[in-house]
């Protein structure tokens, strides 16, 4: 299983890397924030509307905690589908 440090810091087009460490990866887009976060032995990915960054409204991108690679893939797929620049 890979770790967050095994992946490049490059954000998808239209997104900027907000946070990148061993427990959290997050990106800001024009309308929302996408987050991968460590939960116990796994990782989850979710999105939050940018105007509600402090709110608890989260849209899960993974059903359950999973491997980092799967959570990162779900986050990147979501960002690519929601890229306003494309």
Task: Note down, in words, how this protein is organized.
This protein is of the alpha+beta class and 86 residues long. It contains one helix and five strands, in the order βββββα. It has one helix spanning 68-81; strands at residues 16-20, 24-28, 32-39, 42-49, 59-60. Strands 1-2-3-4-5 form a five-stranded antiparallel beta sheet, with helices on one face. The protein is globular. The termini are far apart. The relative contact order is 0.24.
What attributes characterize this protein structure?
alpha+beta; 86 residues; single chain; 33% strand
Distance between the first and last residues' Cα: 32 Å
> So how many helices?
1
Rounded to an integer, what's the Rg over CA atoms? 12 Å
Kindly state the percentage of residues in helix. 10-25%
In round numbers, the mean pLDDT is 84
Strand order of the largest sheet: 1-2-3-4-5
> How many strands?
5
User: Low-confidence stretches at least 5 residues in length (pLDDT < 50)?
Assistant: none
Helix/strand order:
EEEEEH
Computed structural class: alpha+beta
Shape verdict: globular
* Percentage of residues in strands: 25-35%
Largest sheet: 5 strands, antiparallel
